[in-house]
Specification:
Low-confidence stretches: none
Pfam families: NAD_binding_9
Helix content: 25-40%
Organism: Novosphingobium mangrovi (ex Hu et al. 2023)
Shape: globular
Mean pLDDT: 94
InterPro entries: Auxin_biosynth/cation_transpt (IPR050982), FAD/NAD-bd_sf (IPR036188), HpyO/CreE_NAD-binding (IPR038732)
Keywords: Oxidoreductase
Protein name: NAD(P)/FAD-dependent oxidoreductase
Number of helices: 16
Radius of gyration: 26 Å
Amino acid sequence: MGLHALEQRLERELELIAFNRPQWVRPRTFAGEDVLDVAVIGGGQCGLATAFGLRREGVTNVMIFDESPAGFEGPWETYARMVTLRTPKTLTPLDFGVPSLTYQAWWEAQHGAAGWAELDKIARGDWMEYLRWYRHVLDLPVVNEAKLVRIEPLPDEALHRLHFADGTSELARKVVLATGIQGGGEWHTPAMVRDNLPKALWAHTSEPIDFDALHGKRIGILGGGASAFDNAHFALSQGVEAAEVFIRRSQLPRVNPIRFMEKVGFAARYPALDDATKYAAMDCFLGHNQPPTNDTFARAASWPGFHLHTGAPWLDVAEHNGLVRVTTPHGHHEFDFVVISTGLISDPALRPELAEVADLIARWGEVVTPRGARNALIDAHPYLGDGFEFCARQGVDGAPLHGLFAFNYSALISLGLSASALSGLHLALPRLLRSIADQLFLDDKDVLVEEFLAYDDPEFFGEWPLPEAGDAA
C-alpha cells in the first residue's frame, strides 16, 4: 500500500467518524496573556495520544512540551536498550479504534501482511518510528527542548503557570504530567553505591552510558528485572568483555502478573476495586518483579561473557585500585564499571516541578489502611481520583491542585495498568480525557448554562397552515 496511501485512508476514516469535534471551550486570557486549555508535559506515547484524544472531546487549545529533541521523546532512543517491546504486537493502545492509525496498519503499509504474520514482537526502533509517524500524520503540536522546572499554581484564577528551563513560561488551565515511568518520582539507586563510588564508576540503567568507553572491560549489573538483562545483552553486543548480573533472590522470577491482568479484564476493571483490595493486589504485583522475557534472557545468556549470580545481594561496594569491588555473601568481585537496575520510587515529593504543591497531595499511606502489613513503596504513591487527578490531603486547601493530572507511572496503585504501560493505555486514555473535559466544562458551567438558558437562535422555519401557492408567489 505505502505510507502515502495509508495516510489518505486515515484522513478519510477520521472524516467518516467525525473524530475532530468542534471546539466548545471558551478561550481565556489572563493579564493579556493567552491561556492554554491543556498543557501536556511529555511528548512520548502518552502525551501524543492525550493531545490527539482531546480533539474527540472538542478540546483543541492544547500544547505538548517535551524536554528532548524532536524524534527522541520517551525512552526508546535514549535509555531503553531492549531489542523488542515486551508487550504483544497485537495491542492497539494509541489508535482510538481508528484502523489506519494502528501499528499493524503502519507496518503492513511498508512490509505487507506477510511481513506482519512473520513478526514476533515489535522492535524498539520500529516503535519509535511509528510514534514519529503518529506525531507527523496527526499534526500534533509539540514544543521540543522545553524542560519543565516548576509549576506555579494560581488558585484564585484556577490556572497554573509553567516555568521552563530556558526562562519561558506558559499559562494553562489543565496540566497533564505524561512524564513516563520515572515521571512520578525517581529511579532508585542504593545509598551504598551513591555514597561510596565516584560517579565515573557507575550509572543507572535510566542514564546514558558510554559503552564504547567500556569496550573490553568488565561490568557488574545489580538487579534481576528485565532491564538488567536488556543492558547485559546490549553491553556485550557493544564489545564489553563481561557482564555479570546479581540478584538477591535464589532464582529468577518466573511469573509475570501482567499477563493475567490482560486476560481476565483485571486491567480494565481494576479502578472499580475498593482501596483495600487495590492495596493487596498491588502488594502482590510489586512482590513478583517483572521477569525478563524468554528471548531477552536467552540473548543475554548466549554471550560467553555473561554470568548470573543468584542469591547474591550486594553487601558492600567500594572503589579499590581504580576498580569497583562488590562484596556479596559469596565473596568479592571486581569490575571496571557497575550498572544499577533497581527500579524506581514513586513519590510527588521527589519531583522538582511539583515542589510548590507536593505537600498538598494525598498519599496512599495516609488514606488507606491495608488488611495486612504496610508497603512503603505503595504508601508513597499519590492517591489519585478516578480521572488521574491529584487529590488533596485531608484538612488542606486543594485549590492549587485543581487541574493537575498524573498520567504517569505513579498512577499504578490508584488506577492500575494505565499510563506508561502499553497493556493498559487504551483503557486509561478515555478515563483521562473524560476527566479533563468534565473539569473544563464544570469550571465554566455558570457561563455555559447561562448561555444555554438564553439561547434562542431559530432553527425551524416551517408554517402551519401551509401557505397557499399564490401566497408563496
